[in-house]
Write the structure tokens for this entry.
Amino acid sequence: MKEKLTEKFRELYGEGGDIRAYFAPGRVNLIGEHTDYNGGHVFPCALTIGTYGIARMREDRKLRFYSVNFDTMGVIETGLDELLPSEAAGWTNYPKGVMWAFEERGYKLSHGLDLLIWGDIPNGSGLSSSASLEVLTGLILKDMYGFDVSMTEIALIGQYSENNFNGCNCGIMDQFASAMGKKDNAIFLDTNTLAYEYAPVVLTDARIVITNSKVKHSLVDSAYNDRRRESEEALMELKKVTDIKTLGDLTEQDFERYQSAIGDETRRRRAKHAVYENRRTIRAVEALRSGDIELFGRLMNESHLSQRDDYEVSCKEIDLLVELAWEVPGVIGSRITGGGFGGCTVSIVKRDAVDTFIETLGSGYRKQTGCEAEFYVVDIGDGAHRFRETVTKE
Ligand code: GLA
């Protein structure tokens, strides 16, 4: 693919110079949802799908962007002195946001760039196409300008740009997974300290199957930001009765003991999810490490119920997919994954049940919604990287 993209790059922007190729993956979160901005744990893994970027430094301060996915927009020209978000800028708000965030942190960009990108993450699926584009941009800047930034810092810069340039108050999970992913491993990340460990995902006779509902309810970002605010308000109330910094500091027992300090029933359920989901994630990783996949699956199912009933980030299409999955023999666990309000489910399915799974969910979903779900039997890939071999042609 990158050869074809390089060819396209030359066709658009001309020959010569130091042309480099990069990749940053999307992610799927196995468990630990809406815990990353609540000081809890998450357990995502990088996918082998993601965003590719071909880049070359310019002599001047111009920026030229082109996306194969949005080819009708053509080449979009702007400059390093115009790093402001705008609706008209479409997808380029993501790379521009990262450039802006680098500058905010004192990494001054001396020259502009020509950039071509292409991604194979289905649009709006909640598999972090935007985070992958942010991390890709961060890596390109690090590598091309020689900035001394770690991959963790690139993840943080990506999150900062999404929060402050693109208006979504997301946590660190997506950017971290894209920057730090490791083949065949999930990342057990403590979002409170950013301490992390890789955990091999050994499913022996099972596979990870992502089901795309292809629905994306409007107001996703604002509903997400609302959840975040509600959790923060509940934390403030709890802080009056116990000495904690985040909801991730509480055990289930602590929560039950102090929950009456939260003055509102909705906020109580939001906080309950954050606390219980964090503990579930810790237990799920232990289960996986000790080879107890069945327990891992049960915890995934509990995670779904908690997001459906307490955190209320599911929707009827996603609930349908999960309920259909739970009925299929050979399904170890199934839940909503990602930010919610549509997007995808993640399921662990016995290898010999995958075909039945796809058939059953596909036809059940079609019958009840009139829509076609999409299925991806995925592998866990590496985090963002540059392709080793040079693609320069004189
Ligand atoms: C989105 C956000 C993440 C995380 C998840 C929910 O993907 O970008 O930071 O909060 O939702 O777990």
In short: The chain has a mean pLDDT of 95. Residues 2-199 form a domain with the Ribosomal Protein S5; domain 2 fold (CATH 3.30.230.10). The longest strand covers residues 44-57. Residues 29, 33-34, 36-37, 170-171, 173-174, 338-339 surround alpha-D-galactopyranose (CB under 6 Å).
